[in-house]
Amino acid sequence: GFGWDLPTQQCWASMRLVSLACLPFDDAHEGLALGLNSKPMMSVHLLWIALAVSNPVDAAVVKVDISREFEGLSYGLTAKLKVDGQDVKAVVDTGARETFFIWRPWYETLVPGGCKTILYKCYDCKPDQCAQGPNYEVSFSDGSKVTLFEHTGKFAFDVGEVSIDFGLTKDYKSPSSKIDPHAGLGLRSSGKSTSGRKTLLDQLVSRKVISTDVFSLYLTTAEHATGKLILGGDDPSLYKAPMSFVKVVKTGFVTLTGFHIGGDSYPREFVLSDGYLDTGADIFGVPAKFLVTIAHSIATRGKKRFQMRREDGWYVITCTDRQYLPDLTFFMDGPDGSEVPLVITPDAYVEPKPKPGSKDCKLLVDEDPDNEWTIGHPALLG
């Protein structure tokens, strides 16, 4: 979700090589739109979230390498960054505002030498110790909480070095010992936040590095998916008109009108519910009452019927059976009352490969903890 509250127009274009359209923005209706391109130019999906005021064609953009990485229990969409000469990574998260990294002295007190092995690496103040700013706490949907302190450092972007305020982790709590600390790159709008802390995008705009808080991101559909996060605009070579658009309501939600699994001979399920796009999530979260129906339909409506197994709280299949699975299509409400389909292929809703020593892969569809529909970053794989 995005939670934007700006006195202008906004747009959100997403998923299949998209362009941009706008709806009026006011307190009662968030003018956002999601677009789907029916004529892809290459095998990638593009998510474009834009503040559509004036975005000059020749405006500067900042391009950041991103990739889908496995860490701990799940896959995350991570950005590769260099801060004060140190290589670090962070989860690309449209559901959070904060940008933060793992503080080396804190983490290596818990896990000696751990900064060499953790995916996100660690940040340390050099040559002196960090002067710890005010503490603040951030909570996540998996129940974890991180305590941060404020710091400032130089980010080495492709356009040059930029001084950016961010957080450093000094404490981390989670409901499971299997959930490890992570770093985050927050892309959610500041909205009505009263914290006084500016997001990364806000800071880039205020420093005139980019002209607007438009951002876009795309991934290839390879097993080790890679792509770019583009701050301040997009790459016109990645999409082609025409587009279909989906309106966004409330605080960054789309309206989900139904879903369909399998060929045309199978019935469509009708729903009327809020849907939430969150690149920080690695699954498709569904309300509890739909989970069994969706899992059973996936197992029985493809090219081959098979038994879906439940293990350690997840539905699992033999990885090689993914070739027989059907597409999962979500339908969303368009600005003109029409419906826009979003097709999710098996390569997106099944984890890419088994764990070492196993032949099973998890179904990346699970019960949503808030009993909502959550569309995670695998939707970008399409």
UniProtKB/TrEMBL annotation:
Entries under PROSITE patterns matching the protein: PEPTIDASE_A1 (PS51767)
UniProt GO molecular function: aspartic-type endopeptidase activity
Annotated family: Belongs to the peptidase A1 family.
Pfam entry (one): Asp
Organism field: Perkinsus olseni
Protein name as catalogued: Peptidase A1 domain-containing protein
GO BP: any one term: proteolysis
Record-annotated Peptidase A1 domain positions: 75-382
Keywords: Aspartyl protease, Hydrolase, Protease
Superkingdom in the source lineage: Eukaryota
Signal peptide feature range: none
Matches recorded under PANTHER family: BETA-SITE APP-CLEAVING ENZYME, ISOFORM A-RELATED
